[in-house]
Amino acid sequence: MTSSILYHEGNRQLQDAFESRRIADRLEEKLARAAFTADDKAYIESAIYFFLATADADGRPDCSFKGGPAGFVRITAPDELAFPDYDGNGMFKSLGNIGTNSDVGLLFIDMHGKPKRLRVNGTASVSRNDPLLATTVGAQLIVRVKARAIFPNCPRYIPQLQLVEASQYTPKPGQDPVEPGWKGFADFKECIHPRQPTFTGTSDSA
Question: The pTM is what?
Answer without folding.
Answer: 0.94
